[in-house]
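Quick start: what a row looks like.
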Amino acid sequence: MSQATARVTASLSKNLKRRGALPAFLTALGTGVFLAVQSVLSALVGLIGVQQATTGLYEIDYTSVAIQSSLVSLLVTALPFVFGMFVSLWILAPIADELALRFVIARGILSGVIGFVLVFITNLVLVLVGVFEASGSFITSAFPWPSIESGLGDVLMSLSMSLSYFVHLLPVVILAAVLLWHWLRTHDREHSVSGILDEV
């Protein structure tokens, strides 16, 4: 094992042993439940509008379409975002009861930024995979590969979608961080927590 690999392994092992995983997990889980409920309600509202507008025109199971749309949204946006929140609030910049409110808000925003990055990467991978599949086989090169302009457009589209999602959820993330901070201030903690940001 090389020295670089050993250092990475040691760092990973150290970070995975950090305390404070449960509060971070519950905060991220609460945010995820909110996003799931929001997605289902949005799908139901959209379903009602579509059914009223297209009654008798098409033989489409709009309920199945709405459910599939909600599931896809949760998998490619909510899940990466919530996972990014969890990692940030546990390993990168955990929230402690002794922090001032401005630092709590800053760490909440940071957790949202980490979530945004993961959403962007997830959507970018899915978009690029779709582009390559539409352009033909990797091996046979039956069709030309996507152009640089097309790839750049896909990157910008993924960035725009992810940034819009981040801005939309930012108030929710800040609220979740403040609620976690308030809970920690009213409940004694048996141990202190620190993250990578605290050790820099």
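That is the whole record. The radius of gyration is 21 Å. The CA atoms of residues 138 and 180 lie 48 Å apart.
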